Amino acid sequence: MSARPTFTQIEPEHENYGVDRNLTRKEWQALCLNKLLQGHLVFNEWQQVLISAENADPQHRTEYRWSRQDGDTNEVTIWMWTEARRAYVIDIGDHVFEDGFSLGRYEFHTGIIFTNTCFKGGLSIFNSRFFGPARFLGVRFENQFSAECKFERDVLFDSCEFRGRTFFRHSDLYSANFRGSIFCDSTYFSNTKFGTICFDRAHFAKDVDFSGQQQPDGKLGTFGRASFRDVEFGGCADFSNRKFLHETTFIGAKFKVAPWFHNCDLHQNTSFDGAEFSRVEIADPSVAKAFSTLRHAMSKHQITREEQRFLVLELDAEKRGSKLGVAALYFLYERVAGYGFSIAKPLFFLIVLPLIFFFALYCGLSAYTNCPSIASCRFDTLTLLGTIEFSVLQSLPPLGIEKASDALRESIFGGEHIGIVIPFIVVQKVMALAGWFFVALALRNLFKMK
Asked: Strands, E, within 182-240: which ranges?
C-alpha cells in the first residue's frame, strides 16, 4: 500500500472571504463550521443568503487553494477551486468531530470542502443534496460512514480513510472520484446510481458490494465510465446485476478473491490488462463460476485475449475442487501445455525432451542388438547418425515419410529384435503427436482464431 499524501491549505490568513469580503480564510472556516453545527435549518437559511450574494455580484471570485504532497514521490501539486461563481464555498479544515455527526436534510448550494478533517464518531449523510461540487481531502472516518443522498455535481474523496463500515447504498453519484482512498472494513455501494466513477489506487481491505438490483422490466443498475486502475481488492468485489455503459478498466488491479460479475452486461472496451488474481488454495465452486462468468462476458464481445485468460483461471479453480485422478490430469495439462496457451512447454516436455531420452535409449538398444559381446563392439558413425535421424523422425508429425523410418529401423535394430523397439516407438510417437497438437492449439489461441 502506497504512502498517503498530505494536504495543506495555502494562505489561511489571506482576506477576501465572506459576504463582506473582510474575513480571512481561517475566519471563514470558523464561520462555516459554526453554521454547520447549528443544524440544517440554520445552515440552509444561511445558504440562501450566500446564493443571493452570489447573484448580486456574479463576477466576484474567491480562491480556495491547497497543496497536495504525494506520500511516495514528495511531489507537490497546487490545487485551486476553479469553477465560476464559487465565491462562498463551505470550507471546513483541520477540525476533529469528537462525537458522531449527522448531515441530515442539509442543502449545499455553493460547494463544500473538507480538508484534513476527522470524524471520530462516524458520519451519517441522509436526505441531503449537494447541488455544488464537494471535496473530501485527506478526511478520516474513524467509525461508520453512511451516505444516502444525491451528489448532483462531482464529488472527490481524495486519499480518505474509511476505518469503519462504509455505506453508499441508494445514493446518487453523478461523478465520483475515490482515488487513493482506503476502506478498512466492508463497503457497500449496492443499488447506488453511478455516473462517471474512479477508484484508482484505492484499497479495499474486505468485501465491497457494487451490485445493482434487476428491475421487473429486466433493466440493470448502470455504471458510466469506470476506472479501477491499481485497485487492491482484499475481499470479494461484487459487481452483479450491473450494466457498464462506457469504457471500464481494471488495469493493474489486484484481486485476492475472484470478483463476481454475475448477470452483468460489460462494455466491449473493458480491460483487465496487468490485473492479478490470487491462486485458489481451497476447493470453492463459486470461484470457477466467477471466472466462467467473466469468460462468457468476454466471449460475448469477442475480447479473445481476456476470454482466454479467464479460461485458464477457471480451469485452475476447477482443478482445486476435482477428485484426485481428474486433478492429476489438470496438473499435467497445466505443466506440459499451459492449459493450451503455451508453445514452449509442449515443445520442450513432449517433443525435445522425449527426443533426447529416446535417442539415448535407441543408442543402447542398437548396441544391444548389434554387439554379440563387449569386445566386438566398435563405434559406428553411420549407425549413430542413423539413430539420430530415426529419433527425429519419430518426433515429427505425420508427414508421409513412414517408409524411410521403417527402413532405418530395420538397418539399426534388425528384424529379430524389432519387438523390443516397437513399444518405445509407440510411446514416443504418441507424446510427439500430443505435443504438436498442443503447439497447434497454442498457435490458434495466440492468433485469436476460433
From this structure: 182-183, 187-188, 193-198, 203-204, 208-209, 221-223, 226-227, 232-233, 237-238
pLDDT band at 390 (very low <50, low <70, confident <90, very high): confident
The dihedral through the CA atoms of 271, 276, 278, 279 has a sign that is positive
Per-residue pLDDT reduced to its tens digit, 40-71: 999 999 999 998 888 877 777 777 888 888 87
Three cell numbers written together for 168? 453508499
CA–CA dist 366, 97 (Å, integer): 89
Structure confidence at residue 369 (pLDDT): 61
From the CA atom positions of the chain, what is the Rg in Å?
34
- All three cell numbers of 429, joined, read 510417437
CA angle 36, 39, 45 (to 5 degrees): 80
Q: What nine digits make up the cell of 212?
A: 445493482
How do strand 65-69 and strand 6-9 relate by DSSP bridges? antiparallel
Closest to 75 measured CA to CA, from 3, 15, 177, 175: 3
Cβ-based neighbour number of residue 191 at 10 Å:
16
pLDDT at 126: 92
Q: Is the dihedral of CA 361, 362, 365, 370 positive or negative?
A: negative
